[in-house]
Amino acid sequence: MRCNATRTLGTTQERYDPMKLVKLLPLALVAALVPAMGLAQEAEAVEEMAEAAAMVGVTQEVTFIFNTLLFIIGGFLVFFMAAGFCMLEAGLVRSKNTTMQLLKNISLFSLAAIAYFAVGFMIMYPGDGWIIDGWLGLPMMTFLEPVGVSFDMVDDPEYASVGSDFFFQLMFCAATASIVSGAVAERIKLWPFLVFVIILTGLIYPIQASWSWGEGWLDEFGFLDFAGSSIVHSAGGWAALTGIIILGARSGKYGPDGKVNPIPGSNLALSTLGVFILWLGWFGFNGGSELAMGGADAVANVSRIMANTNAAAAGGAVGALILSQWLYRKPDLTLVLNGALAGLVSITAEPLTPNLLMATLIGAVGGIIVVITVPLMDRMKLDDVVGAVPVHLFAGIWGTLAVVLTNEDATIVGQIVGILAIGIFMAGASAIVWLIIKAIMGLRVDKESEITGLDTTELGMEAYPDFSKG
Amino acid sequence: MRCNATRTLGTTQERYDPMKLVKLLPLALVAALVPAMGLAQEAEAVEEMAEAAAMVGVTQEVTFIFNTLLFIIGGFLVFFMAAGFCMLEAGLVRSKNTTMQLLKNISLFSLAAIAYFAVGFMIMYPGDGWIIDGWLGLPMMTFLEPVGVSFDMVDDPEYASVGSDFFFQLMFCAATASIVSGAVAERIKLWPFLVFVIILTGLIYPIQASWSWGEGWLDEFGFLDFAGSSIVHSAGGWAALTGIIILGARSGKYGPDGKVNPIPGSNLALSTLGVFILWLGWFGFNGGSELAMGGADAVANVSRIMANTNAAAAGGAVGALILSQWLYRKPDLTLVLNGALAGLVSITAEPLTPNLLMATLIGAVGGIIVVITVPLMDRMKLDDVVGAVPVHLFAGIWGTLAVVLTNEDATIVGQIVGILAIGIFMAGASAIVWLIIKAIMGLRVDKESEITGLDTTELGMEAYPDFSKG
Amino acid sequence: MRCNATRTLGTTQERYDPMKLVKLLPLALVAALVPAMGLAQEAEAVEEMAEAAAMVGVTQEVTFIFNTLLFIIGGFLVFFMAAGFCMLEAGLVRSKNTTMQLLKNISLFSLAAIAYFAVGFMIMYPGDGWIIDGWLGLPMMTFLEPVGVSFDMVDDPEYASVGSDFFFQLMFCAATASIVSGAVAERIKLWPFLVFVIILTGLIYPIQASWSWGEGWLDEFGFLDFAGSSIVHSAGGWAALTGIIILGARSGKYGPDGKVNPIPGSNLALSTLGVFILWLGWFGFNGGSELAMGGADAVANVSRIMANTNAAAAGGAVGALILSQWLYRKPDLTLVLNGALAGLVSITAEPLTPNLLMATLIGAVGGIIVVITVPLMDRMKLDDVVGAVPVHLFAGIWGTLAVVLTNEDATIVGQIVGILAIGIFMAGASAIVWLIIKAIMGLRVDKESEITGLDTTELGMEAYPDFSKG
């Protein structure tokens, strides 16, 4: 059984109480016999029975369909986040590097899709196929259920179809890589980056994700991360941070005198669109991670999650809006955009249990974290082109810790162990891979190419050739 | 019970006829006894019973799940309209004001989300909590059903989960504010605008919406507005119109000699994208307002609404295309875009009862209204940057009146009273709030700032810094 | 009964075995009597019965709702492809022709919507209303099921509501026209193009589609095209190809010395967004073409289709990425974008039966076809502005042939006959219509207008008026 949040599934399983049906049967029998016998006192008993029968609930197969549909809808929404990341990042780089950013984003998604079915999915959800129990799954290719599989032949009748589960989980894996691409933009070479993506999505991400969602050791330990504040967002953030450090800053970003030169993004309309698309996709990201909607309880939970996810994004945007106005006297659009995203990241570890006010506040803290840590990154000469590390890593840590505020099943120790374990593994594995790639292929374009722009030198294709550059 | 269209719900409730089940039981009993007794004449009775049983329908819990799912899908589609409005408006302002427009749109949505859960939702759907019966609901914070609520504990088992309902209705509230932001663009200050948004979405919109959708006095009066031609679109249009009047036109728009200087939008690709996104979102807007899809009748209605909504948008675009070609010899893209939106607004008051031809024609009239009233606005020196008043207010009035053409439950008196009541309240309340804000904070940026562009002067951040301005 | 893929429906129909319920009844009776009689041996029988009852499946009405919902979701996703095509094409034309491309795309969709309900839908699905049996349906206006239709009155209780079916199929028809608009961009006049669109969507497309999906002669012949590699994509490709030939190349594209002058697109960010939107929409395009999700088998099939569709797109992008790197030493973003689309087109004829590896490979071949045929088109002086013919026609033929690789019901003869029949009819009918329009209205703008740009000369409205042209 595969799950982002094992707990929920439990709830769902309990729903099928066949005994409910049985208890109704004597009543039904009486009701049925009554007219045949021509007795008079039928009315009340029949009424009662009938109403109970009309309520009786949801068959397992209908639940299976609903759960599968949740993954299908969640999957296409999270897929669209690839477009959101692409637009966000393409708008935040300079126009001379836009084609490269577009190419990297569509290529990384495509390679992630291949790497994940080739090995990633089975590593992440090993079932009984662990190499090291709870730590490392066996790499195998994914096979879906056969065409036209009947309900009594599906892998897990209490869950959802394998195809929908794979489709949904693939999108999470790809999102992890999308987080990296923005951070290392404007100076990394295409192919070394893509090699990193293949290893990240085929091996690194699935291994650590198996610890929690594949019923590995972190899950046993009690670490709770509903939809992946740590498992997806911080994981991507750690990979991005190590990339930034190993790659170095863009030339001209940090003056020799410690001065930070702002390099504004070339198309903020595109970036804003990207954030709206990400926000939309997040409804699938968090809502789908309920993993079930085939009962009133499950679908009501999905509803709560939708409302809370939206509240946290709003909180993040407003938090960043107010704080950037207060700090800089002028509100900063890119901080508000990243604030909304940080709000979303913050609620992702627990979008179910908070109430709307709490969700708004959890998101607002995420937005505030962005406003505070973006300049801190610059002070440390960590050149994160799109603010991916503040948004995904820092707000992701906050969101993972914040689970204890509203979910009594979470422990502060469990959360910290999860954060550290994921952080150490992701940073370590990413650093090793970045360094190996650097040694073999090189990571950075040469300085001339960086100054001219990657689109001309690396690709020979401008994104906006008809427009004069200012 | 919350509803956009009380009528529909009635239909749905009738669906649960537990007696249907009961009537089958004697038959079932016979069928069951027959094999046990080894009798011969089983075949026909059994067959008949079995077929009836397989048809018997949908349990209340399954209906509850379907209805909730409709709100979830409808909610994320209507959410995406925030992106549509943002892109439409960002493309129709000049590039020097684009960052401001982007910032206003993401901020207004976020503030609306907070204002609506803090007080708006409960004002709009007071249930028994009216301050003035049918006129003014008690402001309270929204609380959703508890986590993992079981079906026998949900607020309204014949409807949908509270969380999904809140999620869906919030998006309508935010749309009202998005309508305003385009109309008053390019000269309004950020914070005064946002204060207006908070009051609009927390108080003004919910109060008037409670009259119809919260089972208030207009609902009692027989006013019919399925998904909000008046309640959302004209309401937003009135708030926009009063803002335009109090704010005044952009400098340079109207010459002293009565000459109208066209101020073209800077990015029509973005605006066209915005219209496509809005069109997409409208399927959730109107389709979701059926409020139920847990029965064949309800889901067939949702289907009709989808088809009609699309037809009206197409009618509006074609109406504007042909009329602008005929009047100006050159078809006008911005009129066609607004024509499609006006078609959508026109069908919103009654997307269910028209047939496809009628829906197309209702939309076409909306498109024609736009082509005719956009220059009329200019003649009256009402400077509506994006055409929000023609699209949302004028076509909204038309759509509200057009209900009587296809829905025999509607009366022309009922519709006119609704239009007037909403108009008087929205215009009055908006004007008072705009004037108070103007007195306290001021509304307009200074003229120098307007000429230089709000992005540089107010925000210090250009939307397209890499491109030379023409 | 309407279907994209008759086969699937068969599977679904078989699902309703009312006898399953009947067989449980004696058991139920025993279970019911047991407690009444106070007998001892109840436990096991009751348990068994109860579990079976809880599994029993899905009633016809619930299936009807799920199927209808699939069309609704599929329909709005495929609708959004209109936005995808629009952005793709608007980004691939020069900025001086962008407004025209935007106008053409929103107008063609709107006109297609009208033409399809006026005559197209009934031509495509004649039922018993053929003029020439299996070849030509009777043109009639579409009428949907009545408002609030009860389940026992719906047209086809084993399928889905007519409104949802119409809504879904309309989007396919419009997609065919969107394919054409990019190919003939930058030199065709607006109104002649739109007249072609009306005839294409009202008559030409529906006639050939009726042969396969309307249960016409190609369906009888055994031609299999699940979601329309040929019926939609190649059909659109043939219409585009004849248009390109009759219209001629853009001036300056091909030098007198046989030199090909590349004309780069003006906004590749927009084009990339368009491809992501198309990719998203394709989940509805292929997934919805399963035509059912009201059973575990059907919804598991939809899941497979989603996963395979995504895999093929990824394969197409990666195929084009690697081949363009290998051929040109610099990977080409526009080829990668078109490669992803070609992967999608390739899997469209059979997205269900391949496994993930096979789907990836089928898509990769599609991507390779694009990289190879785009320069071939230029060598033949066929000026296809966006690469629509390689993507939709060539990859569509490949995809149609590839059905035999994984679906044993397909025959190579059946597929070739389908490809040829559709090709001959589409090319012939399109050519005749293009030539008649050319004779009556003219097709091309004059040379001066082409050089100045259509936006200024034909429309008087620039897409990006604030930006200096390079």
Fold and architecture overview:
Three copies of one chain form a homotrimer. Chain A is mainly α. Chain A has two domains: 18-55, no CATH class; 61-459, Ammonium transporter AmtB like domains (Ammonium transporter fold, Orthogonal Bundle). Helix content of chain A is 70%, strand content 1%. Chain A is built from 17 helices and two strands. Chain A has helices at residues 6-15, 18-37, 42-55, 60-92, 98-124, 162-183, 190-212, 217-221, 229-247, 268-288, 296-328, 333-348, 356-379, 388-406, 412-441, 447-452, 454-459; strands at residues 130-132, 136-137. A two-stranded antiparallel ribbon of chain A has the order 1-2. The longest helix of chain A is centred in the N-terminal third of the chain and has 33 residues, at 60-92. The termini of chain A are far apart. The interface between A and B is large, with 84 and 80 residues.
Descriptive labels:
homotrimer, about 475 residues, mainly alpha, Ammonium transporter fold, two-stranded antiparallel ribbon, 17 helices, 2 strands, globular, disordered N terminus
